[in-house]
Design a protein that fits this description.
2 copies of one chain form a homodimer. Chain A is an alpha/beta fold and about 350 residues long. The first copy, chain A, has 3 domains: about 45 residues, 434 Repressor (Amino-terminal Domain); about 130 residues, 3-Layer(aba) Sandwich (Rossmann fold), CATH 3.40.50.2300; about 130 residues, 3-Layer(aba) Sandwich (Rossmann fold), CATH 3.40.50. Chain A contains 13 helices and 12 strands. In chain A, the strands form 3 sheets. Chain A has a 6-stranded parallel sheet with strand order 2-1-3-4-5-11, with helices on both faces. A 4-stranded parallel sheet of chain A has the order 7-6-8-9, with helices on both faces. The first copy, chain A, has a two-stranded antiparallel sheet with strand order 10-12. In chain A, helix 1 crosses helix 2 and helix 8 runs parallel beside helix 9. Chain A starts with 13 loop residues before the first helix and ends in a 5-residue tail after the last strand. At the A-B interface, helix 4, helix 5, strand 2, helix 6 and helix 7 of A face helix 4, helix 5, strand 2, helix 6 and helix 7 of B.
DNA sequence: CGCAAATCTGTTATCGATATCAAGGGATGC
DNA sequence: GCATCCCTTGATATCGATAACAGATTTGCG
């Protein structure tokens, strides 16, 4: 692979390339980046030297001198949730083609972990950062503000945003779902969610449920809190059993996400409880599994990909604005949600 | 947030901290990293200065002078597949606590995209890299070899590994599944997969299926290739309809992954075809949906988390060995797979 | 033909940290 | 009491690229 007789001591540097091509490092630098003014012949020679040496640009050094790291950070709660992986894809696709790289981090729904991640991201001087939700530790807020880079919060409408926002009200969305169920005749509606507020969006959905129940004057709210959020399919199955045994008159269940809704539907199936005959079940998030299973599950559709894409576009505009010395004003972008009526209710 | 009357011009540097604490930058550097010899009182003063200034270490500069980037790269095909997200979690957890950060990339099952990703990762000089599968472009191989860092290939057993390996034979695993179905009395076994070899592991599974069919002397193989890999739940549902209409005597279907198997099972349900009465359906990967749906789906269980964890451990050992000037020899670690017999066959 | 503009390339300084070596000062040992 | 060692701190050089400016060459155009 390497020229014999000349043992490589370490990675070749730009100086090695420059020497081989008979030019200065500055010329090499220009040849390797678009937009540099350089003679075609010189460029050809340099590219050849790069190939022969197997040279790979050291972006670390470049970042230091140009003060542009060339990457943006995005933090999402979980890699396993298709809503957030859609968002990550949206960000990825929006960033594609630009000379920016995406660095992803997973907070595991924990604000403390978010704080550690934010700091370790900032150490690498991202040009912008996308976070999920509006609840952060005090120190996280301070870090984000002091970092002096554009910030976008997603999947939520924070009361006191750190920077820009691309999100929706989880409470309103869940409330809308409850109202729709009510309109279809359901009266004893329960809620299935996780047993802590760790998942703040889940907590907001429960809030929206409770509020809607009150608005509609329905009997006291029937809430099953089960398992560490985000709750799984399996836990959804267990929770529906609890719900029905605790309040036998329940005629519908709103689940904190499609995963638990799916688990609930399948468990009912297994026990011979008809869905929606015995009980209607609705989810949240419009995961593929809800579209595909039998019966198909009523849910709230959120365009996770769109959120990611819009957040990234907004971030890029903000970064661009800052580069041009014309910062843009903080924006709050509301994304729509839709209740999708399917076979399970 | 900032001290009034003293407008910040830019991010504070270590020199600012040093000045405020009345020490040299070298002392600040030592105070901020574990293991530096430093007086407790000095450290306290420095930490105080850091807090007051809101200083965040610039790791870019640190990387340049210490020649240690402090991160490892991992490339997986897709963020949406729970097998690979499990692997990513395994890597994350193995890396946690060490002073290493994980940078994830998604190849979208495309070797060309992998090549671009590898290069852009290498630009940032990772200390090691984990890739998925054993098929790469020539240039990717060269980049990885020239990079002179530990490499681990996962989820496969490459014929000619680039570095270390943590994987299993997808062909053998699929073959085992077919043999088990045969043992249970199935004779007309079909296969449902994607319509290209873009997903190399999927292609290997099809190969294992074809080989097993030949070994068992079963009638010619019935393969439905449907949709761009990785095929979705929805596509699995469409494929099973094709399979049955094309070969009405088929009595079992092996699906390239649990997602398509699930889609197939649900579609059968919808059409009133009993599973496994009319047809047995098996998947691959042991996704949560297969454990949870009704009927539960027979599948091949692979410990994706374990693969990630083991790959990271191996990589860390290799990195450590290299630091100590005692490189470790290339290792091939086989991970077990199990056919899990469930209700769908 | 001549001068200005455009194109291409090189020199020098610099980004912000850490490696390395050296030195000051107090504790310890004999 | 003096040498030795350890602990702590600092000075200087350096990592590998790019910014900014300047110089050299070519091109454009009246």
């Amino acid at each position: 692979m390497h020229p014999a007789g000349k043992p490589r001591r370490s990675q070749p540097t730009m100086a090695d390339v420059a020497e081989r091509a008979g030019v200065s490092t500055m010329t090499v630098s220009r040849a390797l980046r678009k937009g540099g003014s350089i003679a075609a012949e010189t460029q050809r020679r340099i590219i050849a030297a790069v190939d022969e040496l197997g040279y790979v640009l050291d972006q670390t050094a470049g970042t230091l001198s140009s003060k542009r790291s060339g990457f943006i950070a995005a933090l999402i709660p979980s890699i396993n949730n298709s809503n957030f992986s859609d968002t990550a894809r949206g960000v990825t696709e929006a960033v594609e083609g630009r000379d920016l790289q995406l660095l992803l981090g997973y907070t595991d729904y924990l604000v403390q972990k978010e704080e550690r991640l934010v700091e370790s991201m900032l150490r690498r001087r991202p040009e912008g950062i996308i976070v999920t939700g509006g609840r952060h530790t005090e120190r996280t807020r301070r870090l984000l503000l002091d970092a002096d880079i554009p910030v976008v919060e997603t999947w939520d409408i924070p009361a006191d945003p750190v920077g820009h926002v691309v999100g929706f009200s989880n409470a309103d969305a869940a409330g809308k779902l409850v109202h729709d169920l009510h309109a279809r005749g359901y009266r004893n509606i329960g809620f299935i969610g996780g047993s802590s507020n760790r998942d703040t969006r889940g907590a907001d959905r429960r809030l929206g449920y409770t509020r809607a129940i009150a608005e509609l004057g329905l009997p006291r709210s029937r809430v099953i809190s089960f398992g560490k959020p985000p709750i799984s399919m399996e836990q959804g199955g267990q929770a529906i059993v609890h719900l029905i045994s605790q309040w036998p008159d329940v005629d519908a269940a709103v689940c904190v996400s499609d995963l638990s809704a799916f688990g609930a539907v399948m468990e009912c199936h297994r026990r011979g409880w008809s869905v929606p005959g015995r009980i209607g079940i609705a989810g949240f998030g419009d995961f593929e599994v809800s579209r595909c299973c039998h019966p198909r599950i009523t849910t709230v559709s959120i365009d996770g990909f769109g959120i990611g894409h819009a957040a990234a576009e907004l971030l890029l505009r903000a970064i661009e604005g800052r580069r041009r010395q014309t910062p843009i004003a903080p924006e709050v972008m509301l994304v729509p949600f839709h209740v999708i009526q399917r076979e399970s209710t």
